């Protein structure tokens, strides 16, 4: 099995120095021989090495560097004088492309090229330059590079200044180099079937039959009495929920937060000028329901708002306990169930209002928001028309609703209730991976796991991406906490999990030593 990663251990840097010597001293006479049979690159401290493995043997490499001057600048002057201005905004240099003899096959080259382009593309480089040896010119051209200046160097080691621009990559190479990839995102959900256009009018009888079928299924799963289906995101659904609290003048509320999305609800409530107090817990920490009960017992609150599944940490807050408190103290319970609806069976029958979306656990396209309620909302003369929940509860379909989105939800809902068990089994399989010992929260719902990894796994996010495995870790709140998240809702999860397990089995053997800082890259 061939796979790639960013070099980070002493053993890897030793292997890189040996391969550097074998290639650029013994094979290409670019440097003088030495007794150690190792060659440490003069830009070693500035290099980022992408390496390719055959299981646990390092068999190939290349180096990225974006600090100036480039080595090619020293040979031909600043490369900008030869390149179009639009390609010079963010340049990098690629050096030390080398593969062990015996492994110079198309598969290895393709793997290294795909990793190269993933890394450079994700970093936002507008062009990559390279000094390509003339004996490997064909190889570089296969990778997409073209010559942009006259050859330089000695006859035995003649080099071609070559460039690959972002535009050229997107136009001619991106599709050809794209490999099978898998995502572990908690949304949006990959659609395996092609989504086609439909001209079915939202005013037609066939559309209304589809609309009623989706409504009935949503109400059956939620145990709510009413649901408004709105074109929009989860944020919009929450706006509609908060607008109802504002419109109905329900008095002072209590907002519970223990993560990013609880905080977002709080900020939205401020924008609606709602009166409320906050119970704030550390991220991933369960609420103290005795504390909440003592606050509700004062009689100061008429509504309570919380997130059921806090996606930022994977924490599942106790909806049953919240419902019991709300009933006992006669407060209106409002729940953001955007990440949990469809992930596991639960009832919203005790919720005054609740929200969900199409593009999360139920596995449909993003684009539809659901607002559940137990009572019909009174029509408003002051709320923005699109945020008035009453408009979505009066029987007729008030605004344009794309049939392609509604039909996609209809097909996804046909998987229930069996999908609950499928997600549960996937969740159990995911938890068997060794890295799940680093899971952040133990009170999770069967949709995703959040891990906070030690420093030895600091590059795992990009390393998995180099191998076509994309995990959730780019959101600012995840980067700040050092979190990575793995969701089970994607349709090709089983195949993705198998590949992830294979990569990690080799990965953990390779990174058995401490991760080095940039200053510690010494041989």
From TrEMBL:
SUPFAM superfamilies the UniProt entry points to: Acyl-CoA N-acyltransferases (Nat), PLP-dependent transferases
Record GO terms (molecular function): acyltransferase activity, transferring groups other than amino-acyl groups; alanine-glyoxylate transaminase activity; L-serine-pyruvate transaminase activity
Keyword 4Fe-4S appears in the UniProt entry: no
Gene Ontology terms: biological process: glycine biosynthetic process, by transamination of glyoxylate
Protein name as annotated: Aminotransferase class V-fold PLP-dependent enzyme
UniProt xrefs under PANTHER family: ALANINE--GLYOXYLATE AMINOTRANSFERASE, AMINOTRANSFERASE CLASS V
Protein's organism: Lysinibacillus irui
InterPro entries the record matches: Acyl_CoA_acyltransferase (IPR016181), Aminotrans_V_dom (IPR000192), FeeM_cat (IPR054597), GNAT_dom (IPR000182), PyrdxlP-dep_Trfase (IPR015424), PyrdxlP-dep_Trfase_major (IPR015421), PyrdxlP-dep_Trfase_small (IPR015422)
Named cofactor requirement(s): pyridoxal 5'-phosphate
Keyword hit for Transferase: yes
Gene3D superfamilies: 3.40.630.30, Aspartate Aminotransferase, domain 1, Type I PLP-dependent aspartate aminotransferase-like (Major domain)
Domain named N-acetyltransferase: residues: 4-167
Keyword terms of this UniProt record: Aminotransferase, Pyridoxal phosphate, Transferase
Domain of life: Bacteria
